[in-house]
């Protein structure tokens, strides 16, 4: 049978209450044992030890406990000495019964259903065998004063069995619930990571690839225009962005390029790289955190990419950044005319990615057509 791979540290953390309880019971019982009854103590200790170690190999532990109980009962029968003090009518004491209950509970909690059923039946059969083997050792008259009748005995045994199985089922349900929650958390984290990578691919790599396509088309239309340096620059930036994404997937490093100390300089660089007639306006009264600056750059970058892909006859693109009252505001407006076919096609994820990025930062986002022509993008992001 495969082990549950519960290491010793986790086993000690999980089982120390049971180990302490059984140790206390065994010590208390040992004080009531006299004469040859002391020969039961080693066997009882073995049974208790197996029950404490049961979470490592539950089914094997159930088999071992059942075998040990029968061996102790046969051994004490051979000596002609009853196990003391009696817990049921004969043949078992409190520590043995507690160890059997704990083993059944662990088996029901951790093992497969059919194995749990078989193991529980074997432990119960061992307990019954101990009772049968221990019964004739002491004259029945000794039990008349304190022993319950058969009905009470059976009721007590069934009650203990229900407690064992019930506690095992309860903890099994709790374990399944925790496993489901963990799986859901892992799936959510994986989905968030996929979405972040998808946004980076769309916002960064697609931006540079779009620039390559735009410059290549310009070169086809006008052979005298030297577009090779611009294409080479965009290709280099695309490769750099791809390497960052690969690094993110391999070792968890940041996917986005690190923003410089000046958000305004970074936006100016993006505007220059785009090749569009961009007019910039800055009214930043507050310092912008690096992570927020990176997201703002992504929003500006995607807005300029959308203008390149979807607009024709663009004479001006206004990019405005301002901050006040703890809120950073971004506005990108162009006066282009919507082209019929976007450059390089359109996946339809640009606005979705921008909206998701802003929502993750607790901000608001809007985008739509301008009158009489053009497109506008608005975003408000909390600085704190």
Automatic annotation (TrEMBL):
The EC designation for this entry is 2.7.13.3
- Which residues are in the Histidine kinase/HSP90-like ATPase domain? 294-383
Q: Which reaction does it catalyse?
A: ATP + protein L-histidine = ADP + protein N-phospho-L-histidine
Signal transduction histidine kinase subgroup 3 dimerisation and phosphoacceptor domain sequence ranges:
193-252
User: Superkingdom of the source?
Assistant: Bacteria
> Which positions, given as ranges, span the membrane?
36-54, 61-81, 87-109, 116-138, 150-171
Q: Which UniProt keywords apply?
A: ATP-binding, Kinase, Membrane, Nucleotide-binding, Phosphoprotein, Transferase, Transmembrane, Transmembrane helix, Two-component regulatory system
Coiled-coil residue windows: none
Top class in the EC scheme: transferase
Pfam families cross-referenced by the UniProt entry: HATPase_c, HisKA_3
- Please name the InterPro entries in this protein's record: HATPase_C_sf, HATPase_dom, Sensor_HK_TwoCompSys, Sig_transdc_His_kin_sub3_dim/P
UniProt name for this protein: histidine kinase
Where is the organism placed in the taxonomic lineage, from the top?
Bacteria, Bacillati, Actinomycetota, Actinomycetes, Pseudonocardiales
User: Which CDD domains does its entry note?
Assistant: HATPase_UhpB-NarQ-NarX-like (cd16917)
Can you provide one Gene Ontology molecular function annotated for this UniProt record?
Answer: kinase activity
């Amino acid at each position: 049978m495969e082990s549950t791979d519960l290491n010793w540290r986790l086993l000690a953390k999980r089982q120390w209450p049971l180990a302490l309880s059984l140790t206390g019971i065994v010590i208390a019982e040992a004080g009531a044992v006299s004469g040859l009854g002391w020969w039961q103590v080693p066997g009882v200790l073995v049974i208790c030890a197996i029950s404490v170690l049961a979470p490592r190999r539950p089914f094997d532990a159930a088999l071992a406990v059942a075998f040990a109980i029968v061996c102790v009962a046969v051994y004490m029968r051979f000596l002609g000495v009853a196990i003391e003090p009696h817990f049921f009518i004969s043949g078992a004491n409190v520590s043995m019964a507690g160890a059997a209950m704990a083993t059944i509970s662990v088996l029901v909690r951790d093992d497969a259903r059919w194995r749990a059923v078989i193991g529980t039946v074997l432990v119960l059969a061992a307990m019954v065998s101990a009772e049968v083997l221990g019964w004739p050792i002491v004259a029945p008259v000794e039990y008349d004063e304190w022993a319950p009748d058969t009905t009470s005995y059976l009721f007590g045994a069934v009650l203990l069995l229900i407690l064992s199985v019930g506690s095992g089922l309860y903890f099994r349900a709790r374990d399944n619930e925790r496993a489901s929650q963990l799986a859901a958390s892992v799936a959510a984290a994986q989905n968030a990571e996929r979405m972040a990578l998808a946004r980076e691919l769309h916002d960064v790599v697609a931006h540079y690839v779009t620039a390559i396509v735009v410059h290549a088309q310009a070169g086809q239309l006008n052979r005298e225009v030297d577009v090779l340096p611009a294409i080479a620059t965009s290709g280099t930036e695309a490769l750099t962005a791809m390497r960052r994404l690969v690094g993110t997937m391999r070792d968890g490093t940041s996917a986005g390029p690190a923003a410089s100390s000046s958000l305004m300089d970074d936006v100016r660089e993006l505007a220059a790289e785009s090749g569009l007639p961009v007019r910039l306006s800055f009214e930043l009264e507050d310092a912008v955190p690096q992570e927020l600056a990176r997201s703002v750059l992504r929003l500006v970058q995607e807005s300029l990419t959308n203008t390149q892909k979807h607009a024709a006859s663009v004479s001006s693109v206004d990019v405005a950044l301002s901050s006040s009252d703890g809120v950073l505001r971004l506005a990108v407006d162009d006066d282009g005319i919507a082209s019929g076919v976007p450059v390089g096609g359109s996946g339809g994820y640009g606005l979705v990615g921008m909206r998701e990025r802003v929502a993750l930062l607790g901000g608001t986002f809007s985008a739509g057509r301008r009158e009489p022509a053009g497109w506008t993008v608005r975003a408000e992001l909390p600085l704190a």
